Amino acid sequence: MTGVSSAKVSKLQQQGQRSYRKGDFKAAIEAFGQALNQQDVDIIGILDNRAAAYSKLGQHDQARRDARQMIKRSRAQRVPLPDERGYLRCAKVLLLEGKPEKALELYAYGLKTLPKDHPRRELLSQLHLKLQDNMNKSLADPMTVLPLELIVYILEYLEFSELVVLFRVSRSWAAVLMSLPNLFMHLDLSRARRNVPTSAILKYIKGSRTQLTHATIMKLFPGDKIRILDMLGRFHDSRQLKSLIISSEIPTSTEYFARFLAALPQLERIAIYGIRSSAWAAIFQSGWPRTLPNLKTIALQSGHTAIPNSHAHPLDLLNLLSEREQHTYPNLEELVLSWCPERYMPYVFKPVSPSLSARLPPLRRIDFRGVTPGPNFLSVLPSTLEELHVQGGGSISPFLEIDATKTLPNLTSLVLKDLRWLDWQVFWALAVNSKAPLRALQIDACFNVNVGLFPRTMDEMVTVNPDLKSLNHLSLVNMPDVTTDYVGELIEGFTKLKILDLSHTKITGFLVRVLADRRTDPNWNGAILEHVVVRGCESVSSDVVPYAEARGLHVYR
Hints:
The chain is an alpha/beta fold.
């Protein structure tokens, strides 16, 4: 290096250092860059200075690039002792980036590279040990350092499946979990990926101090099913159990159903998705309770055919019809029955009672799948009903008794799906004569209901039931009578509609454009739709979607 060049490099480096001390890091970077362009310079030292300036500006990528260049230059130099500055600078940049693990690896790599007699090796070793100690402190077991109140607060937010994983962390974690019985009040096996052994279930029950309030039993080994059922059937001391859900993997007889009801007086919800029939004698012997004041939800699903006369149908419930003051289920709010036999055999829902004034419990929701309503179905519906969903069932039209004075003053959701027996008269009784304040109405594949009568009878419908004017969700799915002209009259009459589902009908893309244009038409007095569903409508092309979306109408194809 000539004297002139050396002086210039020194001047540029000093200029960069002065700018760095003043906080003008951009000027410092520029000066260091000019210094690097000179010949025969201390490249590692200047790169170190520039990397520091880059770090001050938060430009860690450039700083790390200079630091790695320092390491490469050091390894390329033919000198007795390699330069340690590249390792120090690069580790510092990694720490600023929040990557202590990478910095620790770099310190270790530097110690491996530097010879033992290197004068700066001790500094590198000290920084390595200090960082390692800090990381070990940050990885302290939270179960040993956090207050118990905070641990409980965090654990209560976890799902049961997540708590099970924590058992495998360590014995100390398992001990803490087992000391908190509130975490095990709901035994939920619904998310288990593998079959759960009986020993694990017993451990979880033990964790609750045998004070379970909810139990969802699934994923059992075949040989354990009867054992678990027998164990649950003997829960006479689990007086606080409030919810019991048994999956379809565990066949449960009506006899055991009766035992559960008798043994668990605080039960609020019971769902059995694989219930099977039992002999009437066994059911009566098990002692069906006279009253279940806490029971709010019953959900039963079955495909098991009963032996005629001697066995009860698996979906039959004793004393479902009663006088209000003597009701077995005085507070039942939800009844879900699903019938799905392997070979078709209709199940008719026809609860009986010697009293003509007997009614169903004060249900708020009825959901029947594959169940055919019996003749007295309409007359026994409770006035408390808010949601009625009837889907599938027998193809033979039952003789439904129509009571023109029957009202359902709380019914807001009515779903009628795939009902071959449903005709206009029954629909009128449910939706119009009932004075139901419907907000959601769905008619799907009910081919004996001539929905083409809607526009022609709309004035009469809203005269008989003025609350129909407030309908905001209407689904007419798989209905051949639904056409473009028909829908135009419909939205003009039901002015509060926001959601319209016309899937699998004959409507066209022209209708969707009209519905979208109505949103911005100041002279339009009908419904201003927000969502329209047109899945399976072959005459609705994809180009109408952006047109409608641009006008605020959401289209689902």
